[in-house]
Every structure is written in C-alpha cells, then in structure tokens.
Amino acid sequence: MNEQLRRAPTPELLQRFAAIVGERYAVTDPATLAPHLIEGRGLYHGRTSMMLRPGSVAEVQAILKLANETKTALVPQGGNTGLVGAQIPFDGEIILSLTRLDKIRAIDADSNAMTCEAGVVLQKAQEAAAVVDRLFPLSLGAEGSCTIGGNLSTNAGGTGALAYGVARDLVMGVEVVLADGRIMNLLSKLKKNNTGYDLRHLFVGAEGTLGIITAATLKIFPRPRAVETVFIGLASPQAAVKLLNLAQARAGGTVTSFELMMRGVIDFAVKHGPGIRDPLGTRHPWYVLMEVSSQNAEGLRDSVEQLLAAAAEENLIEDATLAASLDQAKAFWHLRHMLPEVQKPEGGSIKHDVSVPVAAVPDFLEEANAAVQKLIPGSRPVPFGHLGDGNMHFNVSQPVGADKAAFLDRWTEVNAVVDKIVLKYDGSISAEHGIGVMKRESLPKVKDPVAMELMRGLKRMLDPNGILNPGKVL
User: What's the pLDDT at 8?
Assistant: First the structure.
C-alpha cells in the first residue's frame, strides 16, 4: 500500500505510543505477547515489539492519530479467536488490543437494543441480555473468549444464523475510529433511519482494514418461553434438507438451529472429547442437531414429537433423541462445539469455511468428498456445519499414519479442488470466517472485478497511508 509504512517502529516512537495508554498497558514482555502472536490452529505466527491496550475511545483515537501521522502499521485484535490470520501481526506491526473496552453502555429492553463496547466478550453480552429477559442470539463455540468487536469485524455467523441472521444482521449502529483519528458515531436504536448511505455496514466484515469499531448497538430479542433440542440420525444430507423443510413448515415454533454432521466427526468427538458419549444408541451415516424455540410456554414438545413422527413416516430419519433436560441439551451442544477441537488428535486437518445454497448442500458434499479422496487417497473428509443457511465446514483429516507436515503442505491444492466445486454451485469460499491472509490471494479470483475495484478504492479513501491491518483482505 505505502512503501514508507512502518511495521517495526523505533524505540522512540514506541515510547510515544506507550505514553498514550501508560506503561502498564503498553505490553512488551515476550512471554505476555506470545499468546497474541499465534492463532488457535497454529497455522500463523507473528511478531511485534508492542501491544497497546487502550482503556477508552479517546486513547484509541490518540493512537490512530499518531499512527497515521507517523505511518505506523497497526493490527487490531479482540479475543484472538479468528481462523484466517487477520488478527496476527506478521511483520512487526503494533497490536491494538480492544479487550479493555469492555463496558456494556446501555440496555433498552423496550427498544430491544443493547450497546456494547468492542471488548465485551460475547458470552457477557448474552448474559447481560438475559438479565432483562432478552436474547442476544449470536452464538459461537468461542463465545467465552471472542469479543463483540471481533465478531463484527469478521461478520461472525454461528449456530443461530438460521433464525436471526449473521452479525451484520444484528447491528443497529456502530461507533468507529477512522484511520486519521476521527470518530464516526453512528450508534442508534432506530429501525428506520433513511438518511443517506448506511455506512455502518462498511465496517462490519472489514476485518479492521477500514476503521476500528469501538462500540456497537445490537439487536436483542424476547427470550423464548420454550426450547426443545433434538439429536437425529439419518441416512443422508438429502434427507436432512427434506427434514429442514418439514421442520420449518410444521415444528410449532421457530427452527433456530439446524446443524449437520457426518459420522466420522462424531467418531472423533466420542474418541477425543471430554465427557462426550455417542448421542444415539446406534450408528448413522449423518446426524442433525436441531433446536426449536417458541414464545408459547406450552405445547412445543408435543409439536416437535409430532414432527419427528411425521419425519419417520416419510423415512427421513432413522432415530432421534429429544433432550429430556437442560443438562442433556447442553451435552448435545457440547458435542457440537467440540468438533473443531477433536480433529486435532487425528493429525493434520485442511479446513474450508464455505457456503452453497441449501438445496445444493447434498450434491456439494458428495462431489467434494469424492474429489478430495481421489486427490489424496485415504484422506478423511469430516464435514459439519450450519445446514440451515448452507454454511459447511468442509474439513479434511489426514490419512491414518500419514506425515502431518506433508499433508498440510497440500492445503492450497486441496482448497483449489474444493473451491472449484463451491463455485460450481454459486457458493462462497468464505462463509463466516472472513478473508484475512488465508484467502487473500483467492479473493480476486472469485470476486466480481468491479467489486474488487470499489473495495480497493474504499481502502485508499478511508486509510490512505495503509496503517490499518496491512496485508489483510486486499
């Protein structure tokens, strides 16, 4: 972007940055920095001489003013749970950690709105909404550590997207510090505000490349009065799609989650997951974890039982267990959330976060499974994901006994094979994890060229010195 960009600031400049937040919050200790320089999969390793932890929007503003003035590169970071390397400083950039901006500024239950700062942990936001008998429906496996700012910057999806949408759909307004230090305050609880361009969405999903989100006003919803959770065994993804349509038509409530899992990844969970048992008494090729919610306190369980009976009559399901207690429902979800972790003991895993139209999921899975097994004989596809919105985590574990490094060296090759099939079905190579550095080179190959031109133009306009998360997305 800019050849004069400072990625490794001088000691004198570091002192100027440290003075903004105070020595205590200008972290230079290598041991303290270490966890912030690697992401959860261990694919990316970074380096930095300092991490700044501002405690106010004014401090974020001062940091950006100085960074812009001195052309010093910054990498924003929340809970460091991202999976495409967007939060890692690869070339000595300063880390800008937003975790101290952790206040919930306001909750307005009557307006169904909540304003959170960027460093609020997602679980804390969920709990705050529950206190006023409301639901904040964004839910991820990393919700105990990921932050609102990171969720918005990556446009996180999660298990509730089927009913409530992704992070972008939950944002009513944002507060953003621009690259030059100006603060754009678009915080609003209004559902109708037709005053020109809707700029809030520029920053949601931008991965910190256009500005730093410091707070957001989020949608909250009345809490369901009844929730039923059921684990289902079935023969195929085709049956799962038919079951989804049947459930949405007659479940007696809102289908809030509909997760599809291949048997292979269930085997990994039972083998490696703490406290995980096989969810059904017999083995099945595929499984669905379905959650149905209702605002009516009575009658939902009967409706779901009737749905399962109808599905069995149509030969859509082979077996099902309806959670008999909250603890059993939690156990079902514990299994689902552990799926990324339980792949690690099986060796190398090549990941894909993709989406295709829901109706195309069965054909996509059949073709992708065959293609990767042809490319690498013995490889083990273990797809799972959010069937309700077409988002599949198409992960491929190495052949048993294979060399992990040699397998992972074929990451790009496997991605190319899978992505080609995704595009055949008019899908997306990034459904909910973002672009970061992992998919940066692939983006121009799949994105409309006019859209790419406009994206580059927006970056030049909002960040002319290229100080915000350089090398990511574009």
Answer: 83
Contact by Cβ (8 Å): 427, 355: yes
Q: Roughly what angle, to the nearest 10 degrees, separates helices 300-313 and 237-250?
A: 140
How confident is the model over 344-350, as a mean pLDDT? 96
- For residues 278 and 266, the answer to whether their CB atoms sit within 8 Å is yes
Tell me how far apart the terminal alpha carbons of the chain are, to the nearest angstrom: 10
Look up residue 59 and give its two tokens: 């401090």
Task: Report how far apart, in Å, the C-alpha atoms of 28 and of each of 51, 60, 152, 169 are.
Answer: 7, 18, 28, 38
Q: Considering only the C-alpha atoms of the chain, give the largest distance between any 2 of them, rounded to a whole number of Å.
A: 74
Signed CA dihedral, 166, 221, 144, 46: sign only: positive
Taking alpha carbons only, the member of 226, 387, 230, 386 closest to residue 312 is 230
Closest by alpha carbon to 58, among 184, 181, 141, 170? 181
Q: 214: which 2 tokens?
A: 């410091």
183-185 β-sheet, strand order:
104-108, 113-117, 212-219, 171-177, 183-185
Check residue 222 and report its DSSP letter. E
Q: Is the pLDDT score of 40 beyond 90?
A: no
Q: Are 430 and 439 in contact (CB under 8 A)?
A: yes
The rounded distance, in Å, linking the Cα atoms of 238 and 371 is 19
* H/E element, 384: strand 384-386
- Write the pLDDT tens digit of every residue in 44-86: 999 999 999 999 999 999 999 999 999 999 999 999 999 999 9
pLDDT of residue 2: 47
Q: Per-residue pLDDT averaged across 192-203, rounded?
A: 94
| 53 CB-near residues (< 8 Å, 6+ apart) | 21, 25, 26, 27, 97, 99, 100
Split at pLDDT 50, 70, 90, the class of 1 is very low
The per-residue pLDDT for range 395-427, each reduced to its tens digit, is 999 999 999 999 999 999 999 999 999 999 999
Given a contact cutoff of 8 angstroms between Cβ atoms, the answer to whether 387 and 288 are in contact is: yes
Rg (alpha carbons) of the chain, rounded to whole number:
23
Residue 4 scores a pLDDT above 80: no
What is the Cα–Cα distance from 217 to 215, expressed in whole angstroms?
A: 7
Torsion sign (Cα): 47, 49, 53, 59: negative
Half-sphere exposure of 411 (CA within 13 A, CB side): 13
- Cα 50 to Cα 30: distance, rounded to the nearest angstrom: 9
